[in-house]
Amino acid sequence: MAEGLALGGIARLSTCDWPGELVATLFTQGCPWACGYCHNPSLIPRTGACIAWADVLDFLLDRRGLLDGVVISGGEPTLQKDLPEALRAIRSLGFRTGLHTAGPYPERLARVLPHLDWVGFDVKGPWDSYERITGVARSDRSARASLRLLCESGVAFDLRTTVDPALLSPVDLSAMDAGLIAEGLPPSRRQPCRSAGTAGKGCGAGSRAVHSLQRTAGN
Fold this sequence. Notes:
This protein is of the alpha/beta class. Helices cover 29% and strands 19% of the residues. The longest helix has 15 residues, at 139-153. Mean pLDDT is 90; it is low at 196-200, 204-210 and 213-219.
């Protein structure tokens, strides 16, 4: 079972977390990277989770027939050792499964790909910019390996990049797209960087509405 999944919040209804699908989004607690524009900086620490998996299952049981799928976001979901079990449980309820990841753990991503219908993959910038964006040395290596695994898996995916003008110039974006195209991939879809309340090093991003299940489970 997935009782060990650390969840810091839930959005009971989203039309943007999986383009074209009506989903609930679960936000896992913890991320190994510290991007300054992170829109959920409260989810970067590995502690702070408050939602029980049993309560999530009860919530999802009530949403069968109303939602197309469930997206697990973060934080960084592949940090969670119980992620495969959670995805299997979600599928067993009849939901399609989606994942948001930046690819810091290629081996863990490989284990969950068979349980996924779609992945939103965050491309931080050109590969040589990763350390200054994530704050972690050689983070580009794991992201690149994860992206290769995703491409080889046959799982549908969307490449997207949050554009913080303080971190990514037009030249950077052009170099990033050229690198993706060279690997047989499309350019990433741009996402604007929000304007207030981030981890403190980027343009800012108001913390996304991530609520406890008790506050959002009502009709």
